[in-house]
Amino acid sequence: GALLGAVLGGQIGAGMDEQDRRLAELTSQRALETAPSGSNVEWRNPDNGNYGYVTPNRTYRNSTGQYCREYTQTVVIGGKQQKAYGNACRQPDGQ
């Protein structure tokens, strides 16, 4: 939940409804855990037509030994595309 909270709660999340956020969060977790680097994992809200995708990129270990992954989050809300870039690191509890 926290890994994309900053992205979805910030500028890129403006205009997203609760369902958009839920779909984006679930898709992001799945993409970062299982998708090959450079592949797009898409979500789509059938109620409002909004959609987006997550593109996981480089996997690395940070200075404290956590596994991390760079990613790009793209959303299309009301026909307008927005992109954000971030890093997500696995927590000690595996989340």
TrEMBL record:
<dbReference type="Pfam" id="PF16998">
    <property type="entry name" value="17kDa_Anti_2"/>
</dbReference>
<dbReference type="InterPro" id="IPR032635">
    <property type="entry name" value="Anti_2"/>
</dbReference>
<feature type="region of interest" description="Disordered">
    <location>
        <begin position="30"/>
        <end position="50"/>
    </location>
</feature>
<feature type="domain" description="Surface antigen">
    <location>
        <begin position="37"/>
        <end position="95"/>
    </location>
</feature>
<protein>
    <submittedName>
        <fullName>17 kDa protein</fullName>
    </submittedName>
</protein>
<feature type="compositionally biased region" description="Polar residues">
    <location>
        <begin position="30"/>
        <end position="42"/>
    </location>
</feature>
